[in-house]
Amino acid sequence: MSDIAIRVEHLGKAYQISHEQGRSRYRTLQEEIIGAIKRPFSRSADKRETFWALKDVSFEVKVGEALGIIGRNGAGKSTLLKILSRITRPTTGYADVYGRVGSLLEVGTGFHPELTGRENIYLNGAILGMTRRDIQRRFDEIVAFAEVENFLDTPVKRYSSGMYMRLAFAVAAHLEPEILVVDEVLAVGDAEFQKKCLGKMGDVAKEGRTVLFVSHNMSAIVSLCNRALLLENGRITVDANASQTVSSYLRTGMLDGEFCREVDRPGQKLTIKRVALLRNGQISTTFYTSDTLVVQIEFILRQRLAGAQIAFEFLTMLDECLFSSTNQDVIGDKPVFEAGEYVLCCPIELSIFRPGQYQIKVSSSIPGVEMLDIVEHPVLFDLLDDSSPVLKLGQDRRGLILPVLEWSLSTK
Fold it and tell me: Which residues contact 137 (CB under 8 A, 6 or more apart)?
């Protein structure tokens, strides 16, 4: 028996986009009728463009693998899942899927709005090829998970989007498909239910079933998936373990080591001119756990200003904030700056942080009054292990940081 659940070879999907001339405004019914009569005799035909939502995509997914698919909006993620779910036909190539597929691509996919929640559970089970007895065996578990007991005999067209999604996910996850395909629909639910859904998908993967998961929640991708694909403009640009793929994706738009911009920003009281990460006085993108990183921030004031706060956040690549700091921590609650150019420096001991990639985000404000300036792009750096014995001992510990704490022992 093959261990391949999905095989995709040179897959492509093209759409024809029409750019009709002369439609810059809405037209009356009379103009539409006259235009329809004239159009066959007109020399100016509509301009048509071929848009490839997917192009030359190839990959394999093994049975029991949890595969994440990430990328910006319009990258082709949903198109790929629709092809794998047999909703859309490919233009080129092919996709072989071995097993029953449970898909949750849009809120209420596969539901009939006029049927009740109870009837839709049986309908979806039948679509998946399950017997009535199999559905009845899982019925109570589905209803309990979806938390829609009081509305089970209500037509689903009267459900809120959150209720719709909860029931749809419960059906897709509990009716034992061999392959579970989930698009970014979990964003409809509340935070508690999202956590519940991610836990259920993790259970599905542990049971040996295959999961394809599209999400913009990078933490969920890393925690749930052991492998991820990065799609850009319809093509796979990265196929690696989830952490590496997410890292490649998040690096897009980030700056290595230094941020600089033009100072000419008329009407702005305070402008952050430059952010640099210094190692031994030099700009660097690579630091070691024994180093002291210095965050250097240059800014310009165009008028006398009281209470200006310059702040930065120290974050992981998944946007988890480890800590934040401001100039007011030391200078005082409401420092008064005269007009001019200034340089702030803040040293950070790196010994407590795990090796990996981190980002620094900088902003300025008068707390509770107004935002003064925000640096649009985070500054990125790599933190490497310099073979510190303490750090090596702590590699198996949980937590985002590795502080070295003093312990004492005494007899009672």
Answer: none
Both tokens of residue 213?
A: 């998961």
Q: Find out whether 93 and 57 touch, Cβ atoms under 8 Å.
A: yes
Predicted TM-score (pTM) above 0.90: no
Structural domains in the chain plus CATH codes: 4-11+55-251 (3.40.50.300), 255-393 (2.70.50.60)
Q: Tens digits of per-residue pLDDT, 220-276?
A: 888 888 899 999 999 999 999 888 888 888 777 666 677 787 666 667 889 899 999
Within a 10 A sphere around the Cβ of 22, how many other Cβ atoms?
10
The model's pLDDT over 160-216, given as tens digits with 9 standing for 90+, comes to 877 887 888 788 777 777 888 888 766 556 677 777 777 887 788 788 889 898 888
Rounded-to-integer distance, Cα 131 and Cα 157, Å = 26
